[in-house]
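task queued by scheduler; priority normal; single chain, no ligands, no partner chains; default sampling; output format set to structure tokens
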Amino acid sequence: MNFLIISGNPKNIGLCHEITIAACSGAAAGGADCQIEYTNDIQRCKMCGDGWGICKNENKCTFGVDDGFDNLHNKIKKADAICFITPVYWWDVSEGLKSFLDKLRRCEFGQEGALSGKPVLLIASPGGSGNGLINCFEQMELFCRHTGANVFDFIGVNRWNKDYKSICVFEAAKALACGRKVGDDV
């Protein structure tokens, strides 16, 4: 299985980084080939032309080669399962992940695209007060509904629950990598 983790974390330290490693370790324990990709260099959508550019008709971004979007989009097409991980900033996904999701949503519009029917694990880590998690998950779920992705699970990890939620992240990624389907009873 090809398991792709897409992280909106701009740092390589801290809680979000720790749970990204836990997810990758879980996927590997489940027998998957796991790869982590970061979205920090993906530029925000420029809404070319009439607001769509070539993304609607050609399912790619005019600027996607320049910032790595096209490369990551191709990796999504090849992946069997996806995990989106983000810190929670201002009650939402990180700016890096938001920029990527905005472009991806446009390139997946009105078609059976790269995420259609694929299982997706959603993980968010609110820092500081721990607030904003629910709103962040709502935005991620809306993206999944729009693109036809199947949400496997939502896991929120903060500094108060990281001891047991890190285990949950590992086990969820492992279960997904082992082939558990969305909605399977255990």
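post-processing summary
- The mean pLDDT is 92.
- The two ends are 21 Å apart (CA to CA).
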